[in-house]
Design goal:
two-stranded antiparallel sheet, about 350 residues, 13 helices, about 5% strand, single chain, mainly alpha
Length: about 350
Protein backbone atom coordinates (compact mmCIF):
# COMPACT_ATOMS: atom_id res chain seq x y z
CA UNK A 1 0.00 0.00 0.00
CA UNK A 2 2.79 2.42 0.85
CA UNK A 3 4.02 2.64 -2.75
CA UNK A 4 0.69 3.29 -4.46
CA UNK A 5 -1.46 5.04 -1.88
CA UNK A 6 1.28 6.95 -0.04
CA UNK A 7 1.03 5.69 3.51
CA UNK A 8 1.33 9.01 5.31
CA UNK A 9 -1.41 10.62 3.25
CA UNK A 10 -3.64 7.61 3.89
CA UNK A 11 -2.96 7.87 7.62
CA UNK A 12 -3.73 11.60 7.65
CA UNK A 13 -6.91 11.07 5.65
CA UNK A 14 -7.93 8.17 7.90
CA UNK A 15 -7.48 10.34 10.98
CA UNK A 16 -9.49 13.23 9.57
CA UNK A 17 -12.37 11.12 8.25
CA UNK A 18 -12.52 9.16 11.51
CA UNK A 19 -12.53 12.45 13.42
CA UNK A 20 -15.49 13.75 11.43
CA UNK A 21 -17.38 10.48 11.31
CA UNK A 22 -17.08 10.07 15.08
CA UNK A 23 -18.77 13.46 15.46
CA UNK A 24 -21.59 12.17 13.26
CA UNK A 25 -21.78 8.92 15.25
CA UNK A 26 -22.05 10.97 18.43
CA UNK A 27 -24.83 13.07 16.94
CA UNK A 28 -26.62 9.88 15.85
CA UNK A 29 -26.34 8.43 19.36
CA UNK A 30 -27.75 11.61 20.88
CA UNK A 31 -30.64 11.62 18.42
CA UNK A 32 -31.44 7.93 19.02
CA UNK A 33 -31.02 8.20 22.79
CA UNK A 34 -28.12 5.72 22.89
CA UNK A 35 -26.80 6.93 26.23
CA UNK A 36 -24.82 5.28 29.01
CA UNK A 37 -26.41 6.34 32.28
CA UNK A 38 -24.19 6.67 35.38
CA UNK A 39 -24.77 3.96 37.99
CA UNK A 40 -22.93 2.37 40.89
CA UNK A 41 -21.03 0.06 38.50
CA UNK A 42 -19.95 2.77 36.05
CA UNK A 43 -16.86 4.96 36.08
CA UNK A 44 -18.53 8.06 34.61
CA UNK A 45 -20.65 10.69 36.35
CA UNK A 46 -22.70 12.19 33.49
CA UNK A 47 -24.74 10.45 30.80
CA UNK A 48 -22.63 9.95 27.70
CA UNK A 49 -23.50 8.80 24.15
CA UNK A 50 -22.14 5.38 23.23
CA UNK A 51 -21.31 3.48 20.05
CA UNK A 52 -18.86 6.02 18.58
CA UNK A 53 -16.32 3.32 17.77
CA UNK A 54 -18.34 2.33 14.71
CA UNK A 55 -16.87 5.43 13.02
CA UNK A 56 -13.22 4.41 12.98
CA UNK A 57 -14.16 0.80 12.16
CA UNK A 58 -16.11 1.85 9.06
CA UNK A 59 -13.28 4.10 7.90
CA UNK A 60 -10.74 1.30 8.31
CA UNK A 61 -12.84 -1.38 6.62
CA UNK A 62 -13.63 0.98 3.73
CA UNK A 63 -9.93 1.68 3.12
CA UNK A 64 -9.18 -2.02 3.43
CA UNK A 65 -11.87 -2.92 0.88
CA UNK A 66 -10.72 -0.20 -1.52
CA UNK A 67 -7.12 -1.41 -1.31
CA UNK A 68 -8.25 -4.97 -2.02
CA UNK A 69 -10.45 -4.32 -5.07
CA UNK A 70 -9.07 -1.11 -6.56
CA UNK A 71 -7.34 -1.50 -9.95
CA UNK A 72 -5.06 1.39 -8.97
CA UNK A 73 -3.57 -0.47 -6.00
CA UNK A 74 -0.32 -2.25 -6.71
CA UNK A 75 2.39 -3.93 -4.71
CA UNK A 76 2.41 -6.55 -1.99
CA UNK A 77 -0.87 -7.49 -0.38
CA UNK A 78 -2.49 -10.49 1.28
CA UNK A 79 -6.02 -11.38 0.23
CA UNK A 80 -6.21 -13.74 3.22
CA UNK A 81 -5.52 -10.90 5.65
CA UNK A 82 -8.00 -8.60 3.93
CA UNK A 83 -10.74 -11.23 3.81
CA UNK A 84 -10.21 -12.18 7.44
CA UNK A 85 -10.56 -8.59 8.64
CA UNK A 86 -13.50 -7.88 6.33
CA UNK A 87 -15.44 -11.10 6.90
CA UNK A 88 -14.60 -12.04 10.47
CA UNK A 89 -14.20 -8.45 11.60
CA UNK A 90 -17.42 -7.53 9.83
CA UNK A 91 -19.35 -10.16 11.81
CA UNK A 92 -17.90 -8.85 15.07
CA UNK A 93 -18.85 -5.29 14.12
CA UNK A 94 -22.42 -6.19 13.13
CA UNK A 95 -23.19 -8.08 16.35
CA UNK A 96 -21.51 -5.33 18.35
CA UNK A 97 -23.50 -2.62 16.58
CA UNK A 98 -26.75 -4.46 17.33
CA UNK A 99 -25.66 -4.89 20.96
CA UNK A 100 -24.98 -1.15 21.20
CA UNK A 101 -28.64 -0.56 20.30
CA UNK A 102 -30.34 -3.33 22.24
CA UNK A 103 -29.34 -6.29 24.37
CA UNK A 104 -28.05 -9.38 22.52
CA UNK A 105 -28.14 -12.77 24.24
CA UNK A 106 -24.73 -13.90 25.49
CA UNK A 107 -24.97 -17.23 23.66
CA UNK A 108 -25.68 -15.54 20.31
CA UNK A 109 -22.83 -13.08 20.77
CA UNK A 110 -20.46 -15.92 21.69
CA UNK A 111 -21.55 -17.94 18.62
CA UNK A 112 -20.83 -15.03 16.26
CA UNK A 113 -17.47 -14.43 17.89
CA UNK A 114 -16.65 -18.12 17.55
CA UNK A 115 -17.50 -18.07 13.83
CA UNK A 116 -15.29 -15.01 13.34
CA UNK A 117 -12.41 -16.75 15.10
CA UNK A 118 -12.83 -19.89 12.96
CA UNK A 119 -12.74 -17.69 9.84
CA UNK A 120 -9.40 -16.28 11.00
CA UNK A 121 -7.68 -19.61 11.66
CA UNK A 122 -9.12 -21.03 8.42
CA UNK A 123 -8.01 -18.23 6.10
CA UNK A 124 -4.67 -17.36 7.67
CA UNK A 125 -1.47 -19.36 7.54
CA UNK A 126 -0.97 -20.42 11.14
CA UNK A 127 2.41 -19.75 12.75
CA UNK A 128 4.12 -22.05 15.19
CA UNK A 129 4.86 -20.88 18.71
CA UNK A 130 8.04 -21.78 20.60
CA UNK A 131 7.30 -22.91 24.14
CA UNK A 132 11.01 -23.45 24.82
CA UNK A 133 14.07 -23.98 22.62
CA UNK A 134 13.31 -27.17 20.70
CA UNK A 135 9.69 -27.39 21.91
CA UNK A 136 7.05 -25.99 19.51
CA UNK A 137 3.26 -25.81 19.50
CA UNK A 138 1.65 -25.95 16.04
CA UNK A 139 -0.95 -27.74 13.95
CA UNK A 140 -4.45 -28.39 15.27
CA UNK A 141 -3.44 -27.75 18.86
CA UNK A 142 -2.40 -24.21 18.00
CA UNK A 143 -5.51 -23.66 15.86
CA UNK A 144 -7.74 -24.67 18.76
CA UNK A 145 -5.87 -22.42 21.18
CA UNK A 146 -6.01 -19.59 18.63
CA UNK A 147 -9.79 -19.84 18.17
CA UNK A 148 -10.51 -19.51 21.87
CA UNK A 149 -7.72 -16.97 22.26
CA UNK A 150 -9.32 -14.74 19.62
CA UNK A 151 -12.74 -15.04 21.25
CA UNK A 152 -11.25 -14.14 24.61
CA UNK A 153 -9.23 -11.24 23.18
CA UNK A 154 -12.16 -9.52 21.51
CA UNK A 155 -14.28 -9.97 24.63
CA UNK A 156 -11.62 -8.82 27.06
CA UNK A 157 -11.22 -5.68 25.00
CA UNK A 158 -14.89 -5.01 25.60
CA UNK A 159 -14.50 -5.76 29.32
CA UNK A 160 -11.55 -3.37 29.61
CA UNK A 161 -13.26 -0.44 27.91
CA UNK A 162 -14.41 0.97 31.23
CA UNK A 163 -12.84 4.42 31.62
CA UNK A 164 -12.32 7.28 29.19
CA UNK A 165 -9.68 6.71 26.54
CA UNK A 166 -8.27 3.44 27.86
CA UNK A 167 -9.26 1.10 25.00
CA UNK A 168 -8.30 3.64 22.33
CA UNK A 169 -4.91 4.54 23.79
CA UNK A 170 -4.01 0.93 24.57
CA UNK A 171 -4.94 -0.15 21.05
CA UNK A 172 -2.83 2.59 19.47
CA UNK A 173 0.04 1.73 21.81
CA UNK A 174 -0.02 -1.98 20.91
CA UNK A 175 -0.27 -1.29 17.17
CA UNK A 176 2.63 1.18 17.24
CA UNK A 177 4.66 -1.12 19.49
CA UNK A 178 4.27 -4.02 17.08
CA UNK A 179 5.21 -1.72 14.20
CA UNK A 180 8.40 -0.66 15.99
CA UNK A 181 9.37 -4.28 16.63
CA UNK A 182 8.88 -5.13 12.95
CA UNK A 183 10.93 -2.09 11.90
CA UNK A 184 13.70 -2.88 14.41
CA UNK A 185 13.82 -6.39 12.96
CA UNK A 186 13.96 -5.02 9.39
CA UNK A 187 10.52 -6.40 8.58
CA UNK A 188 8.67 -3.19 7.68
CA UNK A 189 6.06 -4.27 5.19
CA UNK A 190 2.46 -4.12 4.09
CA UNK A 191 1.58 -5.44 7.55
CA UNK A 192 3.07 -2.40 9.29
CA UNK A 193 1.15 -0.15 6.90
CA UNK A 194 -2.16 -1.61 8.03
CA UNK A 195 -1.19 -1.45 11.68
CA UNK A 196 -0.44 2.25 11.34
CA UNK A 197 -3.60 2.99 9.35
CA UNK A 198 -5.74 1.37 12.05
CA UNK A 199 -3.86 3.38 14.69
CA UNK A 200 -4.59 6.57 12.72
CA UNK A 201 -8.29 5.70 12.48
CA UNK A 202 -8.39 5.08 16.23
CA UNK A 203 -6.58 8.36 16.91
CA UNK A 204 -9.42 10.21 15.19
CA UNK A 205 -11.85 8.56 17.59
CA UNK A 206 -9.57 9.15 20.60
CA UNK A 207 -9.93 12.90 20.07
CA UNK A 208 -13.57 12.52 21.17
CA UNK A 209 -12.92 9.75 23.69
CA UNK A 210 -10.12 11.51 25.57
CA UNK A 211 -11.05 12.28 29.20
CA UNK A 212 -13.57 13.77 29.69
CA UNK A 213 -15.06 11.56 26.97
CA UNK A 214 -17.71 13.06 24.73
CA UNK A 215 -18.59 9.64 23.32
CA UNK A 216 -17.92 6.03 24.34
CA UNK A 217 -16.58 3.37 21.99
CA UNK A 218 -19.25 0.71 22.33
CA UNK A 219 -19.14 -3.00 21.51
CA UNK A 220 -18.71 -2.61 17.74
CA UNK A 221 -15.47 -0.68 18.17
CA UNK A 222 -13.98 -2.55 21.11
CA UNK A 223 -14.78 -5.97 19.68
CA UNK A 224 -13.24 -5.10 16.33
CA UNK A 225 -10.03 -3.83 17.94
CA UNK A 226 -9.61 -7.04 19.93
CA UNK A 227 -10.29 -9.18 16.87
CA UNK A 228 -8.01 -7.15 14.60
CA UNK A 229 -5.12 -7.30 17.08
CA UNK A 230 -5.48 -11.08 17.29
CA UNK A 231 -5.61 -11.41 13.50
CA UNK A 232 -2.53 -9.25 13.07
CA UNK A 233 -0.73 -11.31 15.72
CA UNK A 234 -1.39 -14.55 13.83
CA UNK A 235 -0.59 -13.04 10.44
CA UNK A 236 2.65 -11.28 11.34
CA UNK A 237 3.96 -14.08 13.56
CA UNK A 238 3.77 -16.42 10.58
CA UNK A 239 5.19 -14.10 7.92
CA UNK A 240 7.52 -11.70 9.72
CA UNK A 241 10.10 -11.33 12.47
CA UNK A 242 7.76 -11.08 15.43
CA UNK A 243 6.53 -13.74 17.82
CA UNK A 244 3.06 -14.45 19.17
CA UNK A 245 4.71 -14.01 22.57
CA UNK A 246 5.63 -10.46 21.55
CA UNK A 247 1.99 -9.65 20.88
CA UNK A 248 0.89 -11.27 24.14
CA UNK A 249 3.42 -9.16 26.06
CA UNK A 250 2.34 -5.96 24.30
CA UNK A 251 -1.25 -6.75 25.31
CA UNK A 252 -0.14 -7.55 28.85
CA UNK A 253 -2.05 -4.85 30.74
CA UNK A 254 -5.39 -5.87 29.26
CA UNK A 255 -4.74 -9.62 29.22
CA UNK A 256 -3.61 -9.77 32.85
CA UNK A 257 -6.29 -7.45 34.26
CA UNK A 258 -9.19 -9.04 32.37
CA UNK A 259 -8.06 -12.62 33.00
CA UNK A 260 -7.27 -12.11 36.69
CA UNK A 261 -10.53 -10.27 37.35
CA UNK A 262 -12.59 -12.85 35.48
CA UNK A 263 -10.90 -15.68 37.37
CA UNK A 264 -11.56 -14.11 40.76
CA UNK A 265 -15.21 -13.43 39.92
CA UNK A 266 -15.75 -16.99 38.68
CA UNK A 267 -14.12 -18.41 41.82
CA UNK A 268 -16.47 -16.23 43.86
CA UNK A 269 -19.47 -17.71 42.03
CA UNK A 270 -20.44 -14.45 40.33
CA UNK A 271 -22.07 -14.09 36.94
CA UNK A 272 -18.86 -13.14 35.17
CA UNK A 273 -20.60 -11.86 32.01
CA UNK A 274 -22.55 -9.17 33.84
CA UNK A 275 -21.29 -5.55 34.04
CA UNK A 276 -19.07 -4.66 37.00
CA UNK A 277 -16.38 -2.23 38.08
CA UNK A 278 -13.85 -4.57 39.66
CA UNK A 279 -10.90 -4.36 37.28
CA UNK A 280 -7.59 -3.13 38.66
CA UNK A 281 -7.64 -0.03 36.47
CA UNK A 282 -11.10 0.87 37.81
CA UNK A 283 -9.95 0.46 41.41
CA UNK A 284 -6.94 2.64 40.64
CA UNK A 285 -9.09 5.33 38.99
CA UNK A 286 -11.38 5.44 42.03
CA UNK A 287 -8.42 5.71 44.40
CA UNK A 288 -6.96 8.59 42.41
CA UNK A 289 -10.34 10.29 42.24
CA UNK A 290 -10.87 9.99 46.00
CA UNK A 291 -7.41 11.41 46.66
CA UNK A 292 -8.14 14.32 44.34
CA UNK A 293 -11.52 15.06 45.94
CA UNK A 294 -9.92 15.12 49.37
CA UNK A 295 -7.77 18.01 48.18
CA UNK A 296 -10.88 20.09 47.50
CA UNK A 297 -11.29 19.65 43.72
CA UNK A 298 -14.76 18.96 42.29
CA UNK A 299 -15.77 15.32 41.77
CA UNK A 300 -16.31 15.75 38.02
CA UNK A 301 -12.89 17.36 37.54
CA UNK A 302 -11.25 14.70 39.71
CA UNK A 303 -12.81 11.94 37.62
CA UNK A 304 -11.28 13.41 34.47
CA UNK A 305 -7.86 13.80 36.09
CA UNK A 306 -8.00 10.28 37.51
CA UNK A 307 -8.82 8.73 34.14
CA UNK A 308 -6.01 10.65 32.47
CA UNK A 309 -3.59 9.57 35.18
CA UNK A 310 -4.50 5.89 34.80
CA UNK A 311 -4.33 5.72 31.01
CA UNK A 312 -1.09 7.70 30.76
CA UNK A 313 0.61 5.52 33.37
CA UNK A 314 -0.62 2.50 31.45
CA UNK A 315 1.05 3.97 28.38
CA UNK A 316 4.30 4.37 30.33
CA UNK A 317 4.18 0.72 31.41
CA UNK A 318 3.71 -0.28 27.78
CA UNK A 319 6.64 1.82 26.57
CA UNK A 320 9.16 1.28 29.37
CA UNK A 321 8.40 -2.28 30.47
CA UNK A 322 6.33 -4.31 28.00
CA UNK A 323 7.72 -3.04 24.67
CA UNK A 324 11.40 -3.89 25.42
CA UNK A 325 10.43 -7.38 26.61
CA UNK A 326 8.21 -7.87 23.55
CA UNK A 327 11.16 -6.98 21.33
CA UNK A 328 13.39 -9.50 23.14
CA UNK A 329 10.68 -12.13 22.60
CA UNK A 330 10.79 -11.37 18.86
CA UNK A 331 14.58 -11.67 18.75
CA UNK A 332 14.71 -14.76 20.98
CA UNK A 333 11.36 -16.51 20.31
CA UNK A 334 12.54 -19.71 22.02
CA UNK A 335 12.48 -17.83 25.31
CA UNK A 336 9.15 -16.10 24.63
CA UNK A 337 7.29 -18.00 27.35
CA UNK A 338 9.91 -17.08 29.94
CA UNK A 339 9.91 -13.44 28.85
CA UNK A 340 6.11 -13.36 29.02
CA UNK A 341 6.21 -14.63 32.59
CA UNK A 342 8.81 -11.99 33.46
CA UNK A 343 6.57 -9.31 31.92
CA UNK A 344 3.40 -10.51 33.64
CA UNK A 345 4.63 -11.16 37.21
CA UNK A 346 4.76 -7.46 38.25
CA UNK A 347 1.35 -6.93 36.66
CA UNK A 348 -0.08 -9.85 38.62
CA UNK A 349 1.33 -8.39 41.83
CA UNK A 350 -0.42 -5.09 41.02
CA UNK A 351 -3.69 -6.97 40.46
CA UNK A 352 -3.43 -8.49 43.91
CA UNK A 353 -2.45 -5.24 45.60
CA UNK A 354 -5.31 -3.30 43.96
CA UNK A 355 -7.90 -5.94 44.85
CA UNK A 356 -8.95 -6.70 41.27
CA UNK A 357 -12.04 -8.91 41.15
CA UNK A 358 -13.40 -7.63 44.46
CA UNK A 359 -15.50 -4.60 45.42
Amino acid sequence: MAESLHLYWVMALSFLISLGLTWLARAYALRRGLMDQPNKRSSHMVETPRGGGIAFVLVYLAILLWSMISPFTTGEHSDQLYLTLLMGGGLVVVIGFVDDHRHVAVILRFAIHLIAAVIAVTLLQMPSIDLWPGLTLDGWWLKTVSVFGLVWLLNLYNFMDGIDGIASLQGISVLCGATLILIFNHAASEATDWLLVLAACMAGFLFWNWPPAKVFMGDAGSGFIGYALGVFALYTADAYSISLWSWLILLGLFVVDATWTLGVRMLNGERWYQPHAKHAYQHLARKRQSLCISSGVSAVRCRTLAHRWVILHGLLINLLWLLPLAWFAAVYPGYGLLLTLVAFVPLLILERLLGAGYE
